[in-house]
Design goal:
Helices cover 21% and strands 6% of the residues. The chain is of the alpha+beta class. It has a domain at 15-80. It has a two-stranded antiparallel sheet with strand order 1-2. The mean pLDDT is 76.
């Protein structure tokens, strides 16, 4: 006894051209994900300049580095970095939302150069040292 199983064929729609309406250049290789259908990073950034990076809805930017429209679902998807394509704005480990907390000095410990006291000749008294530093600042 044979059982006949119907196979479902999934249709893949491949994109062959850049999604940027001002470019429409042919891609090097066809892609299935429409978020990766850009020929260059510049085409990606100009396409998403007036669109939300997640939901692709039209938006007006309040700041130059604004990426999303501000909806809670868009914020969560951006933090999860799920399915946003290959041209993401920042590398891994960097927060995409908000400013980093200032954690200390701007210079590295390698740039810190302490003062050294070099004893050359006779010892200098406190009064001589004060006169030498006070006189140089008055000139």
């Amino acid at each position: 006894m044979f059982i006949k199983i119907a196979m479902t064929e999934f249709v893949q729609t491949l994109r062959h051209y850049c999604r940027n309406p001002r470019c429409r250049m042919k891609l090097k290789a066809p892609v299935e994900n429409p978020r990766e259908a850009f020929c260059t990073k510049g085409c990606h950034s100009s396409f998403y300049r007036k669109r939300c990076l997640v939901c692709e809805a039209e938006m007006v930017r309040r700041t130059e580095n604004q990426l999303i429209c501000g909806k809670r679902g868009c914020r969560n998807a951006l933090e999860a970095r799920s399915g946003l394509g290959r041209y993401l704005p920042l590398p891994d480990g960097v927060s995409l939302l908000g400013k980093p907390i200032n954690t200390g000095l701007k210079s590295s410990p390698a740039d810190y150069r302490p003062w050294y006291i070099i004893a050359a000749g006779a010892a200098i008294s406190a009064n001589t040292f004060f006169c030498a530093t006070a006189g140089s600042s008055l000139i």
